[in-house]
Amino acid sequence: MFTWLNKQGVKSDKGFIVQSVARFVIEYREANKCISIEVESDYAPGMKPIEKISMNILSKWDDGTPITEETQKEILKNFTEAMEFQGIGVIVE
Q1: Residue 90 contacts residue 53 (beta carbons within 8 Å)
Q2: If DSSP codes are grouped into helix, strand and coil, which group holds residue 75?
Q3: Which of these, 57, 56, 15, lies nearest to 33 by C-alpha position?
Q4: What pLDDT, on the 0 to 100 scale, is given for residue 52?
Q5: Considering its fold, how many domains does the chain have in total?
Q6: CA 10, CA 65: separation in Å to the nearest integer?
Q7: Who contacts 68 (Cβ-Cβ below 8 Å, separation ≥6)?
Q8: Beta bridge partners of 38
Q9: Phi, psi (rounded to 5 degrees) for 81
């Protein structure tokens, strides 16, 4: 379940936060760790807003600590769910 933090961010009852911090950057935060995800805004057919991201951007936390492949998949799942809650789709390129 998600709760709105403000107009650009949500918090999950699983303990992570997804927050837009700049026009092309959305932060994913959990357990005192942060990853800044560069996004490209676009629209899917039917004019649904989407964010395009590269899976490569999920390879390390902002402090440089590597992220395991398993954790990358969990982050992507969490990020996608949070964005969908906000009415925004996610496409991984």
Answers
A1: yes
A2: helix
A3: 15
A4: 95
A5: 1
A6: 24
A7: none
A8: 25
A9: -60, -40
The number of beta carbons lying within 10 Å of the beta carbon of residue 20 is 19
Write down the pTM of the prediction.
Answer: 0.93
Token pair, residue 25, equals: 């950057």
What pLDDT sits at residue 37?
A: 97
Range of the domain at 43: 2-92
Q: What share of the chain is helix, strand, coil (3-state, %, to 5)?
A: 25, 50, 30
Q: What is the C-alpha separation between 39 and 20, in angstroms, rounded?
A: 10
Classify residue 37 by burial, with Cβ atoms within 10 Å: 0-12, 13-18, 19+. buried
State the pLDDT confidence band at 45, using cuts at 50, 70 and 90: confident
One-letter amino acid identity for 18? Answer: V
Smallest Cα–Cα separation from 47: which of 9, 7, 18, 87? 87
